[in-house]
């Protein structure tokens, strides 16, 4: 079994010795300052310069996520945790503002930060691994929030990356 699948099944740690469940229990401060977990929680086909030992998606991994509900449920748990970090939540399958929106948005929404890149990664990963509906909902919510929230500091470049991250079909 490959490293990513073993990590997502919860049987093996990432390259830093952390288990999936451990990562999902981390607080928001840890999620903000640690820069080598997002590539494990939301893998893509692109190699990461920040975390060169992180796995990239291959056909085996993509096929496994598409065919295994447990893997998708673990990915959904990772999404739920990271959404809370951003002040968002899943509600009946849709991404909406969370109860902590006002508290969390100054950390990433009111100006461009590295979190815009993280969000692009999350969108690509969800799309590739079978959570396309969640990816589309996240994308739609983010772009709508940028349109309606007067303090949105996300630039057009980041929004274009978000639009391009989720395939139309």
Detailed description of the structure:
It is a single chain. The chain has a two-stranded antiparallel sheet with strand order 1-2. A hairpin with a 2-residue loop joins strand 1 (88-91) and strand 2. The radius of gyration is 15 Å and the shape is globular. It has ten helices and two strands. The longest helix is centred in the middle third of the chain and has 18 residues, at 69-86. The mean pLDDT is 96. The protein has 169 residues and is mostly helical. Helix 5 (59-67) crosses helix 6 (69-86), helix 8 runs antiparallel to helix 9 (132-148) and helix 8 (114-128) runs parallel beside helix 10 (156-165).
In short:
It contains ten helices and two strands. A hairpin with a 2-residue loop joins strand 1 and strand 2.
């Amino acid at each position: 079994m490959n490293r990513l699948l073993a990590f997502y099944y919860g049987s093996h740690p990432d390259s830093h010795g952390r288990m999936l469940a451990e990562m999902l229990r981390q607080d928001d401060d840890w999620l903000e300052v640690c820069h080598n977990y997002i590539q494990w929680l939301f893998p893509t086909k692109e190699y990461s310069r920040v975390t060169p030992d992180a796995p990239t998606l291959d056909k085996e991994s993509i096929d496994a996520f598409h065919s295994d509900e447990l893997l998708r449920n673990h990915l959904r748990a990772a999404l739920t945790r990271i959404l809370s970090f951003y002040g968002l939540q899943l509600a009946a399958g849709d991404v909406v503002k969370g109860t902590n929106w006002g508290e969390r948005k100054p950390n990433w929404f009111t100006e461009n930060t590295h979190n815009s890149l993280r969000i692009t990664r999350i969108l690509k990963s969800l799309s590739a691994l079978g959570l396309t509906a969640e990816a589309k909902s996240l994308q739609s919510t983010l772009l709508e929030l940028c349109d309606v929230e007067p303090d949105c500091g996300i630039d057009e470049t980041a929004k274009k990356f978000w639009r391009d991250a989720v395939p139309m079909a």
